[in-house]
Specification:
By secondary structure, the protein is of the alpha+beta class. The protein contains 3 helices and 4 strands; from the N terminus they run βαββααβ. Helix content is 38%, strand content 29%.
């Protein structure tokens, strides 16, 4: 079953450049551990000017779990997470699954 992971990150005002450096390094680590590419969105208008939304599509929860286990065991990733903590206000993950289509 396909799973969509949506991550919402609020960056400390004035720290977007530092956050984006961490994000670029994180992409390289993620691809090494089998994570699918993610789509990234920034706010166009409204109260969320320091918010970034990511979406990733996984083939299954098992695939997601396997990649995350590898990522969290990676010392380079652990160092990046420590750096990102200084420039992030909040980090939320949401998981979505397809709704069954109505038959009939």
């Amino acid at each position: 079953m396909k799973i969509i992971m949506r991550t919402i990150i609020k960056v400390v005002p004035g720290k977007m450049a530092e956050y984006m450096e961490v994000e670029e390094k994180s992409k390289a680590i993620a691809s090494r551990h089998g994570m699918p590419p993610w789509r990234c969105y920034r706010c166009l208008s409204g109260d969320s000017m320091h918010t970034i939304v990511y979406e990733m599509e996984w083939d299954s929860l098992a695939a997601l779990e396997t990649s995350f286990e590898k990522m969290f065991a990676d010392s380079e990733h652990q160092e990046l997470m420590a750096k990102s903590g200084a420039v992030i206000v909040s980090h939320e993950n949401e998981f979505y699954m397809p709704m069954p289509e109505k038959q009939g």
